Structures are given as C-alpha cells and as structure tokens.
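A quick aside before the break. I want you to see a complete sequence-to-structure record at least once, exactly as it would be stored in a machine-readable document. Don't worry about memorizing anything.
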Amino acid sequence: MKHFRCCPILRAGLLLCVIGLMASPSSQAAEPRFDVRDFGANADGKTLCTEAIQKAIDACAAAGGGTVHLPAGTFRSGTIRLKSNVTLHLEAGCTLLGSENLNDYPENLPAVRSYTDNYTARSLIAGEDLENVAICGRGTIDGNGRKFRWKEYLTRPYAIRLVSCRGVLIDGVTLRNSAMWMQHYLACDRVRMHGVTVFNHITHNNDGVDIDGCHDVHISDCNFDSDDDAITLKSTLDRACENVTITNCIASSHCNAIKFGTESNGGFKNIAISNCTVCSPRFSKPINGKLRGLAGIALEIVDGGELDRVVIDNIAITGVTVPIFMRLGNRARPFTKDGPKPDIGSFRNVTISNVIATGMANIGCAIAGLPDHPIENVSLSNINLTFEGGGTQENASREIPEVPDKYPESGMFGTLPAYGFYCRHVKGIRAQNVRVRTSQPDLRPAWVCDDVEGLWLNGLDAGYSPDTGPIVALTQVRDALVCGCVLPEAAKTFLQVQGAGSRRIALVGNVLGQTSDSVQAASDVPKDAVTVQP
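That is the input. The structure line, written in tokens, reads:
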C-alpha cells in the first residue's frame, strides 16, 4: 500500500487551515458577559437598580470590556455611566425605566463647553471621553418624562448623552418618553445609529436625536416620531457637524422633521441625506409645536458657522406646513457665557433633488439670506410640491421684513408673496423640473426672486388660478436664464420684472402664448435688461 505524499506547499496550506480553525471566533472564549441581576438588580420596576447596573458596567470595564446584559423585565434606574469597550445590551422585553426622582440624576458638567450648558447636565445614560461603546438589543429605554412635565431647563434629564466619545453604536433599541431631548451626542466621532425606534411625546423639548458638533456619523433605518424636532443636526460649540450620512429613515415631528440648527456656531459640512419619508405625527397631540409639523427640511445658519456641501435626495413629504426652508440669519448668540459674538455665517453649496410633497400649508418655501450676505449655490431639481393655496393679492404684494435676529422658523415671515418659492438675497440658484400646484385658487406668483444674482430656472411647471398676476416675479435680479417653461393657457403674464438694478435676464425656448403682456417690465427697469428669444 502506497502512502499518500503531500507536497511541502500543500502541507503548509493544511497547517494554516488548522491554525485558522483553532483561532476562529467560534473556538475562542466568549466575550465577557455580565448580567445585572448578578450584581443585585431587580426587574420588578420598583427597586432602584442604579448601583447594581453601575457595578456590572464597572466590572465589565475592569475585565477589559464586554457586554452588560439586561434581561426581560423593568429595571428602574437613575444615572448610569458607560465605560470604554462596554456594550449595554437590552434583551427583548426589557425596559430600562428612568427614575421619577431628580436626585437620582446627579449633575455632571462635561469638560467640553457648549451652549447646552444652559440646558441640562443630567441624563439617564451618560458617558464622556470613551472609546467603543454601544447600546443595543430589542429592549426599551423609557426616560419616564411624564414625571418632568415642566418647561424649565436644568431639571429635566436627557435619556442618552454621550460627550467626546469615539466609536459609538446605537442599534435596535426603542427609545421613549425622555424628559428632554431623547439623545444628545456632543463632539463625538464615529457614531453609528441603526434600526432605532424613537417615540418622544411626553413633555417639552422632545427631540428625536441631536447630533451636535460630531464627525463621521451614519444614521440608517430608524424611525423618529417626536413632538419637537425629529432628526436634528446642531453645532452648539465651535466644532462643525461634519461627514454625516442619514438614510432610509422615517421622520415625524410636530416641529421640524429634518433640521440643521438652530444653534450653528461650528457649522455643518459634508452632509448627505437620502431616501427618507416625512410626515406629521399621527398618534399624538402637540406640546411645543403644531398638529401639522412646521417644516419637512429646514436648513438654518443664524449663530455664525459655515454650512457647506449638503446633499438631500429622494424625500417624500406629506402633511407638514412648509416642505423646504433655508435661512441665513444673524441671531449671533455666543455658545459660552460672555464669549465673543459670532460674525454672520455662510451658507453655500446645497443640492436638493427628487422631493415630492403634498398637503402643505399656504405659506410657501423661503430661501432667504441677508443683504450683502447671500445664500450661495443652491440647486433644486425634480421637485414636486402641492400646497393648500388660498393666497390673496394682498399676500402677493406684501413687503417682507428682514428680521435678521429673529428665531428661524419656516413661518417666520408669515404668508409669503409666492405660493411656491420666495428667494431673497441669493447668489446662484438653479432650479430644474420644479412643479408647484395649489389645492385651491391662489393669486400669488409661483416663483418670486428679490435681490438674486445668477438664476437658472428651467422647466418650471406652475399651476394657475384665474385673476392671478405673473407666474414668475423678479425684482433686482441679475444674470438670469429662464427656459423650457410653458405659460398656462388661461394665463396672460408669465414674467414680471421690477427694479433699476435688474439686468441680463434672458428668456429662451419658452412657450409664452401670443399675448403682448406675457412679459412685463416696470418703468424703472433698463430697456435692455430683458431679452426674449423663441
């Protein structure tokens, strides 16, 4: 009988395979696991388990990291502090219930200074300057905010607050009833949130999630339903929110569904939001906001800071007041007490595409900068919006105040002169394939620009009501190209131009009908300011 002989290369390969199997995860010792019941926790919903849960976390950290396990049942707790390399795992059927006693949430002012020092230094789950922490599982964290139903700050804890942490994972859990914002991540790096469900309708300031001055953040496949802002990017310190992706989420809010601001000291850079649906809450009554949410998408720079490189795509919106709102203002609030007043910020390079919105109120969408501080380089494409309508000629002729320091909100200017888009103090706006309609007659123009330089309006498809004036109204507009538009058959005037500073406005390739007044220029407009080509 001949023995099988293996070549040296094959023998080496077999040896490596054996070594690999010996070192595989299935053959290694399991990650350390610490059950909170072994440290004295009682899941009866009455016993205060803060100390027991903390002991389990401390033991896990001392062992080099691992998982702290909370089984099914209700564990009542005050503040627990995470440690590096620790995963807090809530089993299905588990509820971590916040204590109703404020004394169980000791104040802990972090080393990082931000405007949130004015809000609260208390939280149910806390962590600062940590590495590789996680909160996951199929269980529920209930902040018990029903016991904190007052407006005053400082005495209402967050459900989760992590500061200056690196490597954060929030996965699968359900979050309910915070006494303040549900989650606050301040100056953190590498934050990942996946499959999280938030329902926060119990008291004031009930945001869904607040990403504040964080870098490298990914939020996906989450459901946010909140009384206050749902998905919120903030910058309450001199550190930008940067490199953030948000995708495949549902956002429902009595205030703003997707919002940047209001605090903007550090700004917002490199943000991509896609494949989200927005609606007003269906299972709650408003506490702070309105039954119909305030805005679907709200981008705001009012405390200095730089907003740059923002892409928003594939958003379906229904039943909110305003679908799109952009504001560069000058509230100029320092983020620290007695700190320097910030200069006016900047707002540029925003692309919003493939948005469908129905059931909007009659206010209209504002894209509003300030004199000598315009919003720059905005692109809108494939936008389909249906508004309530009902605007009057008085609305169309309103003078809109600047109010640079007013709190930014989608309804801050009142009913706008346009039922679709009102653009003021903008430099560089491109709109392609924008369709706007109203459910009832509206006597305002569909599109109004005031002090705009660099307008490209291609393929505007606007509804028309009898006795309406122009479809498009331009005041003090420079360097504009209007093309591919069709004047509705019953309409008489497509474009109205006003202002001595108007110049280089070209209409090319539009279907304007045979009426002589389809384009009107006021007496103060230079004669060569407007050209019309077939």
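Two observations worth writing down. Residues 8-22 form the longest helix (15 residues). The longest strand covers residues 421-440. We'll return to this after the break.
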